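User: Structure please.
Assistant: Input sequence and predicted structure:
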Amino acid sequence: MEEFSDLLDAGSSASPRLFENPLLDKLSRIHHLVPPLVYLPLVLGLLVVSLRTMSWPTVLLATAAGYVAWTLVEYLGHRFLFHLDLPGPWGKRIHFLIHGVHHHHPGDPLRLVMPVLLSAPIMAAALLTLRLISDSTLNLALWAGFILGYVGYDMVHYHVHHGKHRTWMGKVLRRRHMLHHFRDSTSFFGVSAPWWDRVFRTEPPAPRLWAKEPPH
């Protein structure tokens, strides 16, 4: 995987200005530890409240279901929203703000996790969706799992770009994501959940996946 290192370091780690407004531009950058610091206390509180009214196996299963729901949202959002080809200058601008900037500057350490201003509405929409489906107390554990999935995704995304990959899984996830960046942006949409690429057939054949030549 060393063939990707130079590509990540060759100017791609710059952090370009996105907005003329200095406050808005500052809010578009975020340290990678902010999501766990913001959301993990909320997850803990949700699980504590859930365990007061439900058994721990029920809470565990609901949390796992919420996590799986996040992984599907992650895959579908990355594939269909982040890579949506919008027409016209405004469309290109919107695409660049949503995801294009990350493909142009994949090594930018301050734009590898979602700003809270972007992630908070997604988490709120997930809760609203759960409430529209049912008002069951299971919603708290389901929501906790969804949020945990999001935090895990952000941490994996940061790690595949800037972490040290000593485990087999870490190397696989990095390899897949770098291939998405530098060889084929129409595949490998599952950053933390690679199994959805297999389910939806957006994973190239194995020989292409593990080819050692540098991307072009």
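The CA atoms of residues 120 and 178 lie 27 Å apart.
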